[in-house]
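Hallway conversation turned thread

IA: we were arguing at lunch whether anyone had actually written out RING-type domain-containing protein end to end. Turns out nobody had. So, for the record, here is the sequence (243 residues) and right after it the structure tokens. Reply here if something looks off.
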Amino acid sequence: MLFSRCLPPPLARQLTNESKRWRNAGILAALFQIGSCALALFLYGWRRLVTVLIVNVLFIIVSSVGLVGFIKWLFWVIAFYTASVWGLLVVFFGYALLWAFMSGDWLIFAVHSPIVTDVAIAIVVFLCFLHMAKERETPPQEPAQQEDRTTDQEAPTPLPSAPPAPVVLDVGPLPQPATSSDSIGSRDRLPEGAPGCPICLMRRPDVCLVPCGHMVCGRCADQLMVCAICRGGIQSRVKTYSV
């Protein structure tokens, strides 16, 4: 970038690559304008025309101001330079055209620096001004934010993954307490009129299921994994004894 040291560090970091290219184009256009006007003064100064001095000196002064504006990237200076270039171009082009029609001396277009070159430079300067005006409408962003936005745009969208499969733990069968329910003795026999086991209806309910608290007989309790009454899980079995 031309004259990069003339920019403040915050402004240099905020300028995008496109802004730097337009800034370089404006600097080159202003330098070319100054050079063409100086060359016209040197080549055609022998004619000693006041218009030659006025036109080219004014273009040199205005282009010097515009050069400083492009180097420092100052919006209002560039706006003044754009308006001045187009104003001078229209005024003196009309004057030169009127003079050529009246006197028949068409060499005046060469004397007042190349008109085609002035038009091309004015177009470049106007495009630079439009870009800078558009850039001022958008808030400046830090380079880190621009990199994050670029990374977000380049990062592919992750595909939805399948839910993880449930983990099944094999804890094995619940421990079975050693009871004497396998042998049907006098204690397991159901007395007449007493409530029996709600499952087999044959034996005395002497085992309490924890945590639901339902009572079943010892043989049925050994075969249950869940409570047959409330369908709740069985954490342990408590043997009860009747006096």
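OS: looked through it. Strands lie at 207-210, 215-216, 236-239.
IA: good, adding that to the notes. The chain has two domains: 4-144, 178-243.
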